[in-house]
Structure formats: structure tokens, C-alpha cells
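Page 37, continued from 36.
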């Protein structure tokens, strides 16, 4: 049993492990090639997060989904490069919006070069992803365009907040389905589609990616509260400081509104205050880490990961299916 990809995913077949490793290495080379520019400064900025590392979760999903067709088809590696470039571009933009200082354990691009350079670098990555897509055909372009629309819509919904009368948790789940689920769904779809898998298989792996993507983001929400910067690669409580209502906070507010306990209401007031103050921020993090709302968010993560696993049931038994099932376990493990 060998370990490959993010979270120490174990692959129980030597041929599969070798092919996945080779595919991910080709994606890595493709990312570096796609981010080269005649302007050295652009190359440096565009490769900043690539060289910082990362889980390459989306390319791994492309590689595993391709096993249900021809895993050596020519469009598989380029499509994996496209989804990772798109993901990287959103990170540059997210860090500007969140005023983040650290990403993947290194100084964020906006901290190093300023917001304008970070935004434009993200745009550069989107452009390079589009260039690769053009060679994959109109269907791939349409799929990516639809996913990108969902991604941006999710970001706008997050910024606008829930409309009057809408359940904040339901609104938030819609947000992350767009912001995170859409691109992970495309990873499963591209892998199966480029490999020439049956339409039913393409649909299953798309749904799997959507549900796993939601679980993946919910696990990130838990990590943002529960982990230190060494574990997560970014400053803990970044979303908390910026007032972004992730699931543990939403579950806390839900509990406080329902039960009215003084300690919950007091913590809500603390979260509604000025968390740019380091002492208040540290107190809020400390209290959330021991609050039942965090455990409830973990249970929500497990539920979505199990939904993703159940989606795979119609697929034939094989090592690739086992690896996809183990990804569900790995996502849950991240959330503790």
C-alpha cells in the first residue's frame, strides 16, 4: 500500500499508484509551463503559489476519475492543469478580499506585492487556463464557463449575505456549493469525460465531486477554527477576523437564537465586535474551539462526505473506486 496525493491517500494497486504519480508530475510540469511569461516578474508572481506547494486535490480527482475510461487519453492532464490554474487564480483573489497575510505557509501575494498585482496575477492565471481550454474543445469550454459562473455567483452570494427570511445555514451551503463544489465537480467530470467514460459514469463522478467539494470546504471551516497555522498553511481564524460567517459560527448563532444561553449570546457579541484586535480574536478562537457548534460542524462535514461516498455505489468495484472512497475518509480526517 503506497501513499500518494493529498492527505496521505493510500493507493492499494502499484499500477494505479504509478499512473497517478506520473499524471500529477505531468500536471506539475504543465502548471509551471502555463505560468511562464516573457516578463520575469509575471512569471515570479504567477508561480508564487505553485512553488509553495499545495494538495493538488483537484488534479488528483481528475486522475482517479479518468480510470473509468481511457486514463491515457490526451485531454486528461491539460484538463487537470485547467482546474488547478482556475483554483489558484481564485486564491489570489480570495486573499485580497480576505486581506490574508499567509497562504500555503508562505507570504500571500497581496502582502508581498500589493492588492493590484495579486488581482492581476489571478486574472493572468484565468487567461492561461482559457488558452488551454480552447484546445480541449467547445464542450470543455462550456463546462468550465458554467462552473466559473457558479463560482463567481457563490462569491457574490457570500458578499451579499442571505436575503430576509432565508435560513443562514442553507444560504451558506449554497455559497460553498458554488465557490468550492462547482470546481471540484468539474474535476470529476473532466477526468471521466476526457477519458471517454459512459455518460452515466460522468454524471456520477460529477455529483460525487460536488458533494465531496462541499465536505472539503466544511472541513476547511473547521480547520480555520481548530488548527494552528502549521496544520492549515494559513493564519488561523482568518475568516473569523474578516467577519465571514463560516459553518461553526453559523451553528453557534443558530444555537444562541434557539436556546438563549447567556454564554452563547456573549460569544456572539464577541464575534460581532472588533476582531481585528488580537486579544479579542484570540479569545473568540479559544472559546469557539471548545463550543459544541464546532463539533456540529464536524458532523455536517461527515454527512456530506458520506453522501459523496454513497454516490459512488453504482460504479464497478476497482482500485480507483476504493481510492475515491478513501478521499471521503481523508476529507473527514482533516476536520478531526
Amino acid at each position: 500500500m503506497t501513499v500518494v496525493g493529498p492527505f496521505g491517500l493510500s493507493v492499494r494497486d502499484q499500477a494505479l499508484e504509478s499512473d497517478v504519480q506520473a499524471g500529477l508530475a505531468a500536471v506539475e510540469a504543465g502548471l509551471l509551463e502555463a505560468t511562464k511569461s516573457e516578463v520575469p516578474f509575471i512569471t515570479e508572481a504567477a508561480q508564487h503559489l505553485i512553488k509553495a506547494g499545495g494538495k493538488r486535490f483537484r488534479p488528483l480527482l481528475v486522475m482517479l476519475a479518468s480510470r473509468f475510461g481511457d486514463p491515457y487519453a490526451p485531454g486528461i492532464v491539460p484538463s487537470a492543469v485547467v482546474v488547478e490554474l482556475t483554483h489558484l487564480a481564485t486564491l489570489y483573489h480570495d486573499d485580497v478580499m480576505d486581506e490574508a497575510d499567509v497562504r500555503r505557509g508562505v507570504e500571500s501575494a497581496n502582502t508581498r506585492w500589493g492588492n493590484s498585482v495579486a488581482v492581476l496575477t489571478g486574472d493572468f492565471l484565468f487567461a492561461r487556463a482559457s488558452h488551454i481550454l480552447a484546445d480541449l474543445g467547445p464542450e470543455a469550454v462550456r463546462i468550465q464557463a458554467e462552473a466559473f459562473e457558479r463560482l463567481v455567483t457563490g462569491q457574490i452570494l457570500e458578499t451579499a449575505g442571505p436575503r430576509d427570511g432565508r435560513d443562514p445555514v442553507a444560504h451558506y451551503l449554497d455559497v460553498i456549493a458554488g465557490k468550492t463544489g462547482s470546481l471540484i465537480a468539474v474535476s470529476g467530470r473532466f477526468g471521466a469525460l476526457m477519458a471517454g467514460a459512459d455518460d452515466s459514469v460522468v454524471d456520477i463522478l460529477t455529483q460525487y465531486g460536488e458533494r465531496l467539494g462541499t465536505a472539503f470546504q466544511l472541513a476547511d471551516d473547521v480547520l480555520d477554527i481548530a488548527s494552528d497555522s502549521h496544520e492549515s498553511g494559513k493564519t488561523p481564524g482568518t475568516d473569523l477576523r474578516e467577519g465571514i460567517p463560516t459553518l461553526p459560527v453559523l451553528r453557534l448563532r443558530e444555537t444562541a437564537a434557539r436556546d438563549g444561553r447567556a454564554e452563547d449570546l456573549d460569544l456572539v457579541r464577541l464575534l460581532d465586535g472588533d476582531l481585528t484586535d488580537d486579544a479579542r480574536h484570540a479569545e473568540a478562537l479559544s472559546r469557539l474551539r471548545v463550543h459544541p457548534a464546532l463539533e456540529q460542524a464536524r458532523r455536517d462535514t461527515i454527512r456530506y462526505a458520506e453522501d459523496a461516498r454513497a454516490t459512488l455505489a453504482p460504479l464497478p468495484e476497482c482500485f480507483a473506486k476504493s481510492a475515491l472512497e478513501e478521499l471521503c475518509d481523508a476529507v473527514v480526517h482533516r476536520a478531526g
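The beta strands are 2-4, 9-11, 102-103, 106-107. Flag for discussion at group meeting. The radius of gyration is 20 Å.
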